[in-house]
Amino acid sequence: MDGGRSPAPERLDSLNLDLAGSALEGATEPVVVAGRDGAVRAANAAAGPLVDALGQDENAARHLHLLVSHALNEGALAGGSLTVDHLVLEITATPVRDGDGTWLALLVGRDVTLDHAMRTALSESRGRYQELVAVAADFVWEAGADGAFTFISPEGALDYASDDLVGVQPADLMVPPVPDPSPFAARENVRNVEVWLVRADGNHACVEVAATPIFDADGAWTGCRGLCRDVTDERERAAALARAQTRERLVARILRTFRERADLDKALAATAESLTLGLSADGCLVARQMAEADDSLAPEVRYGVPLSRAGEEAVLAAVPDPDTQREPVALSVDGYSALVAPTVYRGAANGLVCLWRGPYRPAWTANDRLVLRDMAGQVAVANEQLANHRQAVRMARTDPLTGLLNRRAFQSDLERRRQRLAETGGAGALLYIDLDNFKRTNDVLGHQKGDEALLVVRDILVGHTRPTDLVARVGGDEFAVWMEGVDGAAAGNRAHEIRRAGGMLHPYSGASDAPLAMAVGVAQADSTMETDLDALLERADEAMYRDKRTHPHPDIAGDDGS
After folding, report:
1. pLDDT (0 to 100) of residue 561
2. Which of the four pLDDT bands, split at 50, 70 and 90, describes residue 100?
3. Higher pLDDT, 264 or 452
4. What SS3 state is found at 552?
5. CB neighbours (10 Å) of residue 419?
6. Is 164 exposed, middle or buried (0-12, 13-18, 19+ CB in 10 A)?
7. Class of domain 407-550
8. Which CATH superfamily is 244-387 part of?
9. Spatial CA neighbour of 364 closest among 332, 320, 342
10. Quick one: pLDDT at residue 127?
11. Could you report the per-residue pLDDT of 15-49, keeping only the tens digit for each?
């Protein structure tokens, strides 16, 4: 065809063709006769729009020419489709002869526009469905009446090839406990059922299943089909968020405990309890550094199931070096699984926190370690504050030279002891000690020698008393001892021993005629005496002066004072 507008085609019955032209002329489908060159020679009335479109659409005219050529060259029917304007026609070309013996092509068209539109819509719908399935699911599956997979998405599932899963029972892939009923054997529609499946590499995946049952014409169940979506990452993120929220609540509760409890000992005890309960442990140990110059640790707080002494020693020896390891360390102690974290303050370890769980209990998780690490930092501050507090208390209660109780602390403790004696019964005694000629020692030998003499007195008193007794320096050269549970005779014997041990002070005498010596007075007390504290101190002081008059110049010979 030359691409120009062809002359109007003749009526079909104007051609001398060996066919029922009149019948074709009245046909409702378009009918045209074209020559070998593809030009339309004749057409019925229904072909008018087609002829007009061919005159304007070169691609359509060329396609019709190829169809005519194929029919005439092959001498057989030829078929094809032709799209012109908004019409989709299915064309059948038949070779025919006119009265002159010229071969022409009789083309009969059938309007398939609606069918084509429906097929196109169906194809697009199928494509959209496939895209939606791909978005909504990681794999599609079908199971037969025996429960085994009969189909898996061509891409496979859970790192398995699709062929590897066909014939496999879904239960063989499930991580116990297996849900009952299984969503892979659904008898009714199920949505958003979560199951754990084993991946090809052995790891577990959380899969969300949607399924619908399949029934035959008789209503018998023949299997089911559905889709699965891997939600492992979502569940892990949700679990991590839940763990973080739990950790924050636990840490916040413990921090609130620190703020609300002024007593650090009680705050540490509450922390140990909260950690034990919050992390599902069986017990907790909080230890702290005994002294600034001493690296050894001592238990401060115990909560829950106790460890043996050997177990505690193993824990105290396992504190990580803060220079190399500040994360909690897991170890086995007394058959328990323990988690130990150092408490680090200003770069130095000042204690530890240890939790333990018994056999068959869950292993420590990363979340457990984070909680313990965070709380170890708070415990480190508490340990430091507790050490500073106790140091301040010691300084307020003790004599800076001798380390003995000072006068105020002695009187306070003595009052409590005397009241307890009055409530429970029993006896006690107060020893009051004074140094004779101590001023001569300071004047002649100097205050350094005087201090050395006072330290000797301290050693004498500590050496001749029990750990439960109160020993104090109540003045410059005055000392006092409270001994509980002793009668008058026992107290007198102890006073005599102390007086004789005072012979150790001979080297600190300022002059031979003014020896440094100890005078000891004893005041007895029991539950029947209604003597107040001041009266008791006054009686001991009077007894001490009587001792001075009784022993003005003790015979000092040897370390034992005999």
Report:
1. 32
2. confident
3. 452
4. coil
5. 11
6. middle
7. alpha beta
8. GAF domain (3.30.450.40)
9. 332
10. 54
11. 555 444 456 677 778 888 888 887 888 888 888 77
CATH 3.30.70.270 in the chain: give the residue spans: 407-550
Pick from 277, 276, 462: which is nearest to 286 by CA? 276
| Overall pTM surpassing 0.70 (yes/no) | no
In this prediction, residue 555 has a pLDDT band, given cuts at 50, 70 and 90, of very low
The CATH T-level fold of domain 137-230 is Beta-Lactamase (3.30.450)
CA dihedral 236, 238, 243, 245 (to 10 degrees): 160
Helix ranges (DSSP H) in 304-437: 309-316, 366-397, 407-424
SS3 555: coil
Residue span(s) of the chain under CATH 3.30.450.20 come to 12-111, 137-230
Q: Tell me what the mean pLDDT of segment 262-289 comes to.
A: 83
CB 472 within 8 A of CB 417: no
Q: Where in the chain is the domain with CATH 3.30.450.40?
A: 244-387
Task: State the fold for domain 12-111.
Answer: Beta-Lactamase (3.30.450)
- DSSP character for 95? E
Residue 561 — φ and ψ, nearest 5°? 80, 5
**CA 324, CA 315: separation in Å to the nearest integer?**
18
Look at residue 184 and tell me whether its pLDDT is greater than 90.
yes
